[in-house]
Amino acid sequence: MLQIQKPKLILDNGLRLDGRKPDELRPMKMEIGILKNADGSSLVEVGNTKIIAAVYGPKEMHPRHLALPNRAVLRVRYHMTPFSTDERKNPAPSRREIELSKVIREALEGTILVEQFPRTLIDVFMEVIQADAGTRLASLMAASLAVVDAGIPVKDLIAAVAVGKADGIVVLDLNEPEDMWGEADMPVAMLPSLGQINLIQLNGNMTPEEFRKGMELAKKGIDYIYNLEKETIKNKYAEFKEEA
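^ that's the sequence the OP posted. Answer follows.
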C-alpha cells in the first residue's frame, strides 16, 4: 500500500509552504448582504476557504409548541457542498457536520440578544463552498456577520482564528498541510470588545509556553480580523448613505 510521508511544513528559510511567516494570516475577504432573499447574509473567504452564510428571522416558530416563552430559538446548520473538497462529498449531513453545527450554535448563541425575541425562531445556514482548512471558524465569522446584517442585536461580532504547531514552530492561521500534518491545532474565537473567549479547542499537544505564545498570536490575528469585520459593515452602510 502506498504511504504518504509527512511533508516538511517549515522550510529552511523559516517560511511555511504557502510562503507566509509563522505569524502571518492568510489573505481574507468579507462581504455582507450578498443574498437578496435572506434577511441577512455574508461571504467570508480565508485563503482558499469560502463560506456563504444566510440568516432568516426572527420569525414565527413552527410548530408553536417548540417556541420558548422567554427567548428566540436559534437553529444552525453547517454544511459542506459536494464540490467543496478534492473528492465529491456525499451531500447528506455527516457526523462531523452535525457536531460542528452544534459547536457553532453554542458559540453564536452566547452573542445574540435572543431574549429580545421571545417565541420566535432564528435560522442560520452556512454553506462551505470551498474547504481549505479553517472552515469551522470561517463559518462562525460568516454567521456572526450575517446575523448583524439581518439587524439582529448582538453583544459583539465574533472574530476567530486557529493557531497550531508545525515542525515544532507555533504558527498562526493553519493552512491545509499544517492542519493535516501539524502537531497541534487550536481554534480560538473571541468577542474582542468584551475581551471574552467564546470558543477554544485544542487538538494535539502544546507545552504551557507554546500555549501562551499561541494565545498571543491568536489575539494578534483576531485584532486584525475584528477590524476587517467592522470595516465590512461600515462599508455597506456607507453605500446606503451615498445612495440616500
